[in-house]
Amino acid sequence: MLVCGIDEAGRGPLAGPVVAAAVVFEKGVFIENVKDSKILSEKERNVFFSRILNVCSDYCVEEIDNKEIDEINILRATMKAMHKAIINLKIKPDKFFIDGNYFKLPDNYESKIHYKTVVKGDSKIFEISCASIIAKVTRDKIMQNYGKVFPGYNFEKHKGYATAEHYSNIRKLGICEIHRLSFLKKLNFK
After folding, report:
1. Which one of 2, 36, 64, 143 is at 20 to 30 Å from 9 when CA atoms are compared?
2. Strand, coil or helix: what is 164?
3. 5 to 135, 172, 185: CA distances (angstroms)
4. Helical spans, DSSP H, in 150-163
5. Looking at residues 168-189, what average pLDDT do you find?
6. Contacts 24+ apart (CB under 8 A), 50-54
7. Which DSSP string do the residues of 88-100 spell out, in sequence order?
8. d(CA 16, CA 72)
9. How far apart are CA 134 and CA 68, in angstroms?
10. Is 118 helix (H, G, I), strand (E, B) or coil?
């Protein structure tokens, strides 16, 4: 039996993409000490990232950029990234575990798969924890690269999240092309 965990990274930041990962394992595969990516250090996430990719049967990572997030909203963008990750898997799993309490895909695709949503699944279900790590490490690398493209914002440090430093950098430098305008308008940045 093949089981797939699905999670995302980057729903809350003011900049950059939302990233979804789908990771497939043979039932019974397990990596000791894998946890929700949010409670692991960056170093631990990077170590587990490689281990997960070495033992999983298949995986897919998809991203939706800030411009599309602004067009369709963050919830739809997250569902779209998850949908793309699912349909682009080379192997079709028997069951999906999805982090959260809501799951609605384009074209009613969720009715075509056997799935279960799990609130705080990234801390309860191994496969979701693995997807959480893959999504987070991938998104962090994207933001580290943006730190080089847009120096001064320090994206490599705060990864686009709403930190005091990020707000200060926006006030000094203005909004750059990877900022989510829909998020910043709510905060009265123009």
Report:
1. 2
2. helix
3. 11, 41, 34
4. 155-158
5. 89
6. 52/23, 52/130, 52/133, 52/134, 53/134
7. T-SS--SEEEEES
8. 15
9. 22
10. strand
CATH code: domain of residue 38: 3.30.420.10
Neighbour count for residue 26 (Cβ, 10 Å): 11
Strands (DSSP E) contained in 53-173 are: 58-64, 95-99, 115-118
Quick one: pLDDT at residue 190? 57
Six token digits for residue 48:
């587990």
Helix 42-55 vs helix 126-149: angle between axes, to the nearest 10 degrees?
A: 120
Range of the domain at 151: 2-186
pLDDT value, residue 104: 87
CB–CB of 21/59 below 8 Å?
yes
pTM: 0.95
Coil, strand or helix: which one is 74? helix
Residue range 124-159, pLDDT digits in tens: 999 999 999 999 999 999 999 999 999 999 999 999
Residue 38 is classified by DSSP as: G
Amino acid letter, residue 41 = S
